[in-house]
Every structure is written in C-alpha cells, then in structure tokens.
Amino acid sequence: MPSEAKKNIFRKRNNKKMITVDLFDNYINGKLGPEEITEFEIKLKTDLLLADAFTEHVNLINTLNQAHFRSNLKRTLNQIHLKEIGSTLNVISINREQSFFKKYTKTLAIAASSALIAVMITVSLLMGLGYLSKKQSNQITDLNRVGLERKSKTLINIKDSKSNAKEASYRAANIEGSAFALNNKGYIVTSFHMVKGADSIFIENDLIDRACTKVIFTDANLDLAILKIVNSDLVAKWRVPFSIKEKNADVGEKVFTLGYPRNEIVYGEGSLSSLSGYSNDKSMYQISIPVNPGNSGSPLLDENANVIGVIRGKISGEEGTGFAIKSNEILKAISELENDSLKQELMSQNKRNQNIKNLKRSEQIKLINPYVFNVLVYKKD
Fold first, then answer.
1. If you placed Cys at 281, which of 119, 206, 265, 277 could pair as Cys (CB 3.0 to 4.6 Å)?
2. In angstroms, rounded to a whole number, what is the distance separating the alpha carbons of residues 154 and 166?
3. Is residue 367 in a domain?
C-alpha cells in the first residue's frame, strides 16, 4: 500500500474533489466491482487531472517496487559474496561506472552457480530418498508379453489337435510366455497368471511347430499351472534330460534360465542371491538374472542342469533381479493332489542324462532346448 506521503501528493493535485489513492489501488489490484470499474474508467477518459494523478500513482508504485527489488537483490548478492568470497578481500574499482549487468556479471555468475549446485544437491537427495522416482509397484510384475502375429508351416485346429495340417498365418496370441517339460509324459510347467481365463493354449519351439495343450492342474497361490500336450504322438520319443530338484539350492550358486522374451529362445545366467523372494516369501528364490516380459514360466536351472525353480516375475523398475518359485514347492503341491493316478503321473521323474552335468554350458543348452517352450495363450474377446 502507498505511504501517507504518497497520498498527500495526489491530494494536492486534485483541485476538484478529494480522490483517495485507495481507489487507485483497488482498481490496480482488481478489488473493484464491474460497475465501479466502468465508472472509474469513464472518469479517467473524461477527467484529465484524474488521469494524470493516476498515471503518476502507477509510476510511483513501479519506482518503489523496483527500488525494493534492487535492495533485496543487493542484500542477496552481499550474502552470496560473504559466503563464497569472504569479507577480508578489499576490492577497489579502477574502471568507470558500468551498467548494472556488467557490474554484477561475476557476482551473478557465482549466485547462479551456487543456486544450481543447491538445486542439483536437492534433486539428488530427493531421488536418493525416492521422492522423485517413479512410483514403484508393491506387487511382483508378471512377465508375460503381448503376442505377435506370425506365419507357420502348419496349423493345428484349436478344437481338434489331430486335424490335417495346412499352411496358415496365425493371429496374434493375447499373451505369450515360457514353459518347460515336467517329465517324459507330455506334462508342462508354466505360470498360472498366463493361462488364467484362457480359451486355448499352444506351445511351440524349434522342433514343435504348434501343439494344443489343456490345463491339468493350477495353484494360484504358487502361480503354478501344469499343462498337457493333447497330441500324444508329439511326446512319444521324449527324453527329458533334466530332473526337478527336491532340495533347496544354496545362496551364491550359479544358475541359468532359458525362455522366450522374444520369438526365439534366450539364455540368461546369474546367481541365487536369496533363499526367499518378494516380501520374504519362503516359496521363492531371488536371483540376479535380468528377466523380461515373456520369461514367466521359464525353468531356473543350477550348474548341473537340475530344475530348481520356475520364473515368477520381478519388481517393477528393479533390473537384474528376478523371483522364481522353488522346485520343491512345485513337487509339494503335486504331492497334495487327491487324484492318485494323476499324482503318480506328474511325480514320475525323468531318467536323467547323467552326463549332462559334466558338459559345458553350450552343450547342456542343446539338450535342454527341445524341452523349453514358447507358450501362446488365446482368450475370448
């Protein structure tokens, strides 16, 4: 608000009637009503003395505001100078008077640098504390991926897996993921979250173009599903080289996985970093292997090519960390089935290739690849 001195200036200039500067201030600050604004603006146009007084009032306010700004700026610059340079340095100017910006270029540079450093430090601290980070999910991220349309040499009818094969283009699956053979009888392990609500489920790899499967068993709590290939001819010569390990693995063990984050099999390796998974879940391992959409249902194997788990997912935003359901939990779930004949079939272990553990990794993978699959899930529209 203008001081009493300013009010006196305008009162002396107004010879017709007393005009308070409150009216000017209310107009400038938008405090007048619509009718008052109209009346005031008409007076400005018709009363030249009033218009002059109003112009001087505006100019005076601007001058005072500029003086206030300069005073604050000078005070701030002095504080920065004392902080960055100190008070002991006595500088005597030998140049002629310079413009404001030329005179304070260095000081402004110091101020800008200090401000920038302060902002960067603040941002770093906030990021470190997670305030500026993208909000993390408190759930495990499922690792299924959106299916892609592709061509194939053969097509197996959804309803009749033994129908005549013909060349065709498949429509894209709703989601895709990975799976692996449980044993030689055509049973396959994958993730429940992928097949939940599925209308049709197919598996394929380099040796099987496409094969229709059906769901045999699910455990939503473990995120586990067991499928079976419908066409028994496709599994007649199966010789699954690995077995499902019954005991827990140890922290620090080297582990690897094979899966389908793409349309071809992808290998990943790392180590077993914890005997518990997300939120200290004892049914899972934590592994230091980057896992991606499409890896859900992939087998996790130890150095001897024993299956020690099935890839479950990861925490969103945390790369190089995955979680896998422990193999002994899978076997435990199967052992609790009430259907004894199905239980016996599922628990049937493979005649393990004893030489596989002594092979180098590339040779192990060649033996394992035929029994790891890309899962294609179709759901009703």
1. 277
2. 5
3. yes
DSSP 14-68: -SSS---HHHHHHHHTT-S-HHHHHHHHHHHHH-HHHHHHHHHHHHHHHHHHHHH
Mean pLDDT of all residues in 82-105: 48
Tell me: do 290 and 211 sit in the same domain.
no
pLDDT at 343 over 80: yes
Answer whether residue 380 is part of any domain: no
- Structural domain contains residue 246: no
Same-domain status, 111 and 175:
no
347 close to 328: Cβ distance less than 8 angstroms = no
Q: Are 39 and 3 in contact (CB under 8 A)?
A: no
Distance CA 69, CA 61 (A): 12
Residue 34 is assigned to a structural domain of this protein:
yes
Residue 133 has pLDDT above 90, yes or no: no
189-201 pLDDT tens trace: 999 999 999 999 9
Domain containing residue 81:
4-91
* Structural domains in the chain (count): 4
- Higher-pLDDT residue of 53, 184: 184
Instruction: Report whether 191 contacts 297 (CB < 8 A).
Output: yes
Percent of the chain with pLDDT over 70: 67
| Cα separation, 48 vs 15, whole angstroms | 12
Q: What is the pTM of this model?
A: 0.59
Kindly state the DSSP code that residue 141 receives in the 8-state scheme. E
Q: CA–CA separation, 222 vs 313, rounded Å?
A: 12
Pair (363, 278) in one structural domain: yes
